UniProtKB/TrEMBL annotation, chains A, B:
Protein name (database record): Saccharopine dehydrogenase
Species annotation: Chelatococcus composti
Domain Saccharopine dehydrogenase-like C-terminal: 150-396
Cited SUPFAM superfamilies: NAD(P)-binding Rossmann-fold domains
A UniProt-annotated Pfam family: Sacchrp_dh_NADP
UniProt domain Saccharopine dehydrogenase NADP binding: residue ranges: 5-146
Disordered as annotated region, ranges: 402-427
Basic and acidic residues: bias regions: 402-411
InterPro entries in the cross-refs: NAD(P)-bd_dom_sf, Sacchrp_dh-like_C, Sacchrp_dh_NADP-bd
Length: 427, 427
């Protein structure tokens, strides 16, 4: 039984993580939240108390921390006696936080691949660039490290594992579809840190097709989907972390990621990119000031967390899986619908943050309770999906399925987590 | 007879002014060019020599000058014995350069209204905000100050004066149309200093309608025109300096300015404006750096002077005048067509700079020779148009007319400048 959670990062996702940890502090124990800016942590602590999210009386403490400083992070993990670290800080922090976990024996959870701030959109193999190089180190130290345990990557990986385990004998293609059909009422805004958001789309688009990496330009491949609840939506093929791990772990010949973009997003992105305003390379103004254009764009855009109060509408994220079962072709869509207003009411964040922030807390609970405490490194699809999806059903992210038998919720209540874990490991 | 010219400003227009002064240095005498950046002046001097633009052997000297420093400007006017100053520097310099002219007795010529760097798009009366407040001071000192002597304002004001003098008994409406049908081959670029360019369009649009100021939003009023040479073109109603002086000096009930914009320009402008990237108010990045967004946009955009070598196509700028002559309704379009490639071949600048830079040199010649040396302040429409347009016919900016008798060049050769001046003054 591991206990006590240190959350690193106090953005919109950190806020959700803190609320959800608080809602389960009977299992998770003390909760600590740390970021570069203490005031942001303190605001989250206030929000948790205002919404009375703490299930039982317990510790919830804000800390100032530069998580690039491994020694300081080690010190904080030790002084707070945290046995689980949920890293939802900027992607640049992953390797230093992981190092601190290895040095202290704390379990590590993150939601996105490590990025080098000086490189944009590194080419695949993404997890192979940093995380997987440290797999052996984790195993030697007996440290549990669950990679990419947000929604996508994360829940969509569990959906894929579930499809493999229970719905298919053979999977031919996996299309992960992520559509935000919400409306924040602003001319333009990104739903999370603009620096990270734009960086995702400034390089090449990588997909896994015919068992090999295929490269396209951003906004080159477009596809419309008819989706539950949100209806017909336009998406564009995008590179995304989980394509890499799933291609390694699932043996599926076609794995693609599709993200919904509005016309407005594409127009703004295209203009900014073509003008050079998304560059992370410093330029010099006529007055001699050295400045990174992307950081100026970030500064003029709305703070993503400021969007939440007026956000309406829903998100739809899921896996469209095609293949064969019992000699017959099959197609299933396993998905979740989340609502921006409901998320804000519950935890003070919109649904994008909500879908990203709830799953790592479910992962932390599964580590605390044992089924996911594997004392090694894993991506989500390598772990038993049922206990994870079962927890999420009860934590605000219910799973639904649409297949030949119609559209319905999926429940996993009949099965205790431990049994499911054994079943999946065997299957 | 005034002689010796000091050019202030070494941008694309300054380059044209220097070449054209050199081509007429038998009349104009010594030529001096000054700007904040000495190297830019030196590059222009080199260009003038390379293209052998000097008509006779004479002085052409580069100087470093901060023209906001009136004492230093006075000193330079005196030490160079300049009797005519052509101010084509940034619009923020007008008042300090005018002061230096008043103190030295040198004639003053500019091509655009004064702007306060801290105010964007001041409301009408534009000339009344700064320039005209100093009219009496000029008259007392016997200083000639010709305001707005570029193309628009400038030549279009002379076209309006010519229409009034020779083509109409009564003018009902004056539409000034400025279309650049050229192509620089870049995704996006402004044809002159982006800071000035965008500032023109970030405020309200003012026009003179039914004898009063009318306000619209930018890109609100759109109109297509069928124009000579460049064909059917889309323009948008825009505020422009000359609407103000013409409304005062012409007594015409409708005066509007129309500028051609490509779809690309409008898209880029709309995105940048809505995002707040055209703001001249400093913002602070997450890292604490204070920076003016507009200056960052300027830094990432192509240097307007870099566009010239690859610029193709033509500009069309003119006055569509409607009214009555001899009891019959009449409509004339008085205009000029300029060619980007020809301008570059002659003076190393594209046609936008060319059309703005040639007219103030014609004005300088008319001051040097007498007809425009009025020892007071005037806008171009208050001065005799024929000698000006006659000079321009021979300096690369020929005037054409399209009316009920067809489309043809207008010539003024039959009439010496002095006679024309008297005629216009009488008429």
């Amino acid at each position: 039984m591991k206990r006590n959670v240190l959350i690193i990062g106090a953005g919109g996702v950190g806020q959700v993580v803190a609320h959800k940890c608080a809602q389960h502090n009977d299992i998770l124990g003390d909760i600590h939240i740390a970021s570069r800016t203490l005031a942001k942590c303190e605001a989250i602590v206030r929000s948790v108390h205002e919404k009375k999210s703490m299930k039982t009386a317990g510790k919830l403490v804000a800390h100032q921390l530069n998580a690039l400083d491994v020694d300081k992070t080690v010190e904080l993990i030790r002084s707070t006696n945290s046995q689980i670290v949920i890293n939802v800080g900027q992607a640049f922090l992953n390797m230093s936080v992981l190092t601190a976990c290895i040095r202290t024996g704390a379990a590590y959870i993150d939601t996105a691949i490590h990025e080098d701030p000086l490189k944009i959109c590194e080419t695949p193999p993404w997890y192979g660039n940093y995380e997987w190089k440290r797999r052996e180190e984790c195993e030697k130290a007996g440290v549990t490290a669950v990679l990419g345990a947000g929604f996508d990557p994360g829940v969509v990986n569990a959906y894929a594992a579930l499809a493999r385990d229970e719905y298919f004998d053979r999977i031919d293609s996996l299309d992960i579809i992520d559509v935000n059909a919400g409306d924040h009422g602003r001319y333009f805004a990104t739903n999370f840190d603009p620096e990270i958001n734009f960086r995702e789309f400034t390089g090449q688009v990588w997909s896994w097709q015919n068992n090999q990496w295929t490269s396209n330009k951003m906004f080159e491949v477009r596809k419309e989907w008819d989706l539950p609840v949100v209806g017909t939506r336009t998406t564009y093929m995008t590179g995304h972390d989980e394509i890499h791990s799933l291609s390694k772990n699932l043996g599926v010949p076609h794995i693609r990621f599709w993200m919904g973009f509005s016309e407005r997003y594409i127009t703004v992105f295209t203009v900014l990119k073509n003008l050079g305003l998304l560059s992370e390379q410093p330029i010099r103004t006529a007055e001699g000031l050295e400045v990174v254009p992307l950081k100026v764009v970030k500064a003029v855009l709305p703070d993503p967390s400021s969007l939440a109060p007026n956000y309406t509408g829903k998100t739809c994220i899921g896996d469209l899986v095609k293949g064969e079962k019992d000699g017959k072709p099959r197609e299933v869509f396993i998905y979740n619908i989340s609502d921006h207003e409901e998320a804000y009411k519950e935890v003070g964040s919109q649904a994008i943050s909500y879908t990203a922030g709830v799953p790592p807390v479910a992962a932390a609970i599964l580590i605390a309770q044992g089924p996911w405490d594997i004392r090694g490194m894993a991506n989500v699809e390598e772990l038993p999906p049922r206990p994870f999806l079962n927890l999420l059903n009860h934590m605000g992210l219910p799973t639904r399925i649409r297949d030949e038998a119609g559209d319905r919720p999926l429940t996993f209540d009949d099965e205790p987590a431990q049994a499911a874990a054994q079943r999946s490991a065997a299957g």
